[in-house]
Amino acid sequence: MATSAWNEHSVPGQGIPNERMLRATHVAPIDPNILPETEVAVQQMESLGSHLTRFSPFGQDPLEGHGHFCRQRDEQFEARFPNYDDFFHSVANSDFTLFRQGLLYTIEITRHLELQLNNT
Q1: Which of 15, 45, 64, 102 could tie 50 with a disulfide, CB 3.0–4.6 Å?
Q2: Strand, coil or helix: what is 66?
Q3: What does the alpha-carbon distance between residue 114 and residue 98 come to, in Å, rounded to a whole number?
Q4: List of residues 6+ apart from 32 with CB closer than 8 A
């Protein structure tokens, strides 16, 4: 509430913060066809001296290739954690408790479904 009130008050010589932000925001849709493919963009960035961290697959998903089991995992996860905003908010505020719970739950579900898969 205090933040909203503060952002709506007039700052002498500057205007109202929320109105200034709206005027300064220059957002426009971009045609995806003008964007380079990922590898091309990476090469362009690196040619300009940037260093990008490349992530590689980690481990192996025992449910890979078994769509029904993957969907079950997703549905069970979303039933327990229906709002990803909670994850983003807590991690952005250096609280990793919920993220840890979600990760451990994903592992638990995967192990349970892998047992079902192996018994079929």
Answers
A1: 45
A2: coil
A3: 24
A4: none
